[in-house]
C-alpha cells in the first residue's frame, strides 16, 4: 500500500486538517537470521547396499548404529542409508527431492543424536502442504519434502530411504536448521490482548517479531480467503522434550525449513502452540486476517491451521496446550461469527495431499483435525481425541469474549474527493467513542461521480466482517445496477465480487433508497418510494449469498408511496432485515421520528414508533446510520456546520427507545457533505 496516498490533507476554510497514516498493524521484524545448512545425500557417505539382505537392518550395515529401524512394507527396498552425520546444532531437519523421475512409495526414516544419545528411528511423512496452483505450490515447483523432525539440541543425524524399486529419489537433499537466538528464547512475551476492530478478544500471542522471524526469508505476498469457515488442528511431528525457552527456536527452525526445504513462501501454519500453552504467530499477513496457509493441502482456502509443537500419536497433549489451542480457535472463529460446535461444507482444491478430487463438496466440523480432509494421521490419535474438548473451549471463549462491533466507517468515493483518485475508507473505533482512528485504507477502485455510486459496509460472505460494498446505480455499460465488493480480509485490496445485477439502473436517492443488512448482514436492499405496482412502498433485496445476482426479498409494505427521499432515510437492520426509517421533515411536531417495520410481518407490522430528541435534519449536512446490534442504536452524523469543524457523532440508544443519547463525540474526520462522505457502522 502506498502510504502517501493515505495523506488526505484537506485545505478547508477552517484550516488544514490531515488524516494520520495508520497502516495495517503487522509486526516489525527483528533481524534474527537462522543459519541453514544443506547436505546433498545422493551417493554421499552411502554404504554399499548391493549385498544387503532382504530384511534390511541398518545395524548390520553400520555397526555403530543403535536402536532398531522402523518396519517398512515388504514391497519396499533399501535405497539410501547414510553414516552418522555430524551436522552441528539443529532444531529442524528433513529431506527433499525432485518429483521428476522419483520412484514410487518412498519411505524416509531418520534418527538424531541429542546430548550424546541416539534416538530411535522415526518415519517422516510429507504431511502438510499447499493447494495446487497456489503461490507456495508454484514456488516449490517439482520438489517434495518431508515434515521436519525437531529437537531443541540435536547435533547429528542418520537417514534411511526405502522405495519400491530400491532407487533413491533424484536430487535428494538433507537440510538442517540452526535457529540462532532471539529475545523470546529467554523471556517470551505475547502481543497485546486485543486486536483493534475485532469483535472477539485476542488471547496472548507471541508475534513473529517477538519469536525472531527473519522476514527476508519470505518470498511471496500473503494471500487471503474471503472468509474463514474451519479451523484445523495439527501436530508438527517433532520432539515433545523441550523447555519453554526452546519453543521460539523450534518455531524459527520450522519456518526456515518450510521456506528452504519445502520451498514454500512462508511457514505453513497460521499459529503454533507449545506444550506450555505459549501461542506463536505463524504465517505473515495479519493475525486477525484469514491468511491462506500451506497447512491442509486442497483445503487451505477459507480455513486456518493451529499446530501443536510435538508428536501426539502415543503421547497425551498437556492441558495447557489444549486450552490454548481452544482459545485461538475461539478467537479466530469468533471474528467470523462461526459456531465452534457447528459444521460446514468445504470445496476440495484437489492435489496429492487429499483423497478428495478437486471440486468435491466435503462436510466438516468448524473445528476439525487435519486427518478429516487429508491423507495423514495428523494431529495424532491422542490430540485428535481432544477435538471435542477443543470445541468446548473455543465455544466458551467466543461466548465470553465477544462484544458488539460497531465501528464507524466513512467512505470517500467520488470524483470531488479524494485526491488519490481511488475510493478510500477511514474508520473510527467504537471503543474510543469514535474519537480515534481504527484504520485508513486506499482501495484499488477508481472514484466515481456522486450521483452514480453508493458505498456500504457489510458482510458479503455472511461472516460478520465489514466488507466494502460498492453499488454503481446509473451510467453503467450494462444498463443495470452493478455491484462490487472489496474484502475486509485483504485490507480492501482484493475485489472478491464484481457482478451485474438483475436490477435496472436508476439515479441514487431519487425515488429509490438503498441499505445493506438482513440475515447475512450483507444483502443489498432497495426501497422503492414511487411508481410501484402495489401502490405502496416496496422492498426488494439482492442476496449476498448469490453475489447479488438473485433476489432474497420482494415485499410490499404498510407505507404508502409518495415519500420524498429528502425527508426520510431508510436503514435495514443486520440479522433481522427489519426496515427502520427516520422521518426528518414534515412530522408535524418539529422533531425527527424513528419507525421500524418488521421483516417477519412482511413489512406490515411496526416494532418502533419514537419521537427523537432532535429537530429536522437533511441528507446533505447530516446522515443517519443504524447499528449492527440485536437492538440497533441510531447514530446521527453531523457532516457540516459543527463547531469543531469535524464530523460529529451523536448516538441514540435503543435501550432508551431512542429517547436518550448514549454518545456525543467529535471524530477526527473533516467536514465534507454527503455523498462525498458516506457512512456505515460495522
Secondary structure: elements and pairs:
Elements lengths: L9 E3 L2 E3 L17 E6 L17 H4 L15 E5 L3 E14 L8 E8 L2 E2 L3 E3 L10 H6 L2 E3 L3 E15 L9 E6 L4 H4 L21 H4 L18 E6 L11 H14 L10 E3 L5 E3 L21 E6 L10 H17 L7 E5 L13 E5 L1 E3 L11 H4 L2 H15 L6 E5 L9 E7 L8 E10 L6 E6 L8 E6 L7 E7 L8 E10 L7 E6 L5 E6 L7 E7 L8 E10 L7 E5 L6 E5 L7 E7 L8 E10 L6 E5 L7 E5 L7 E7 L8 E10 L6 E5 L1
Parallel strand pairs: 12-15, 12-18, 13-15
Antiparallel strand pairs: 1-2, 3-11, 4-10, 5-9, 5-10, 5-11, 6-7, 6-8, 6-10, 13-14, 16-17, 19-20, 19-38, 20-21, 22-23, 23-24, 24-25, 26-27, 27-28, 28-29, 30-31, 31-32, 32-33, 34-35, 35-36, 36-37
Helix pairs in contact: 6-8
Question: What can you tell me about this protein's structure?
Answer:
This protein is mostly beta strands. The protein folds into three domains: 301 residues, Neuraminidase (6 Propeller); 144 residues, Sandwich (Jelly Rolls); 219 residues, 3-Layer(aba) Sandwich (Lysozyme-like), CATH 3.40.80.10. It contains eight helices and 38 strands. Strands 3, 4, 5, 6, 7, 8, 9, 10 and 11 form a nine-stranded antiparallel sheet that branches. A five-stranded mixed sheet has the order 14-13-15-12-18, with helices on one face. Strand 32 and strand 33 form a beta hairpin. It is elongated. It starts with 9 loop residues before the first strand and ends with a strand. The N terminus is likely disordered.
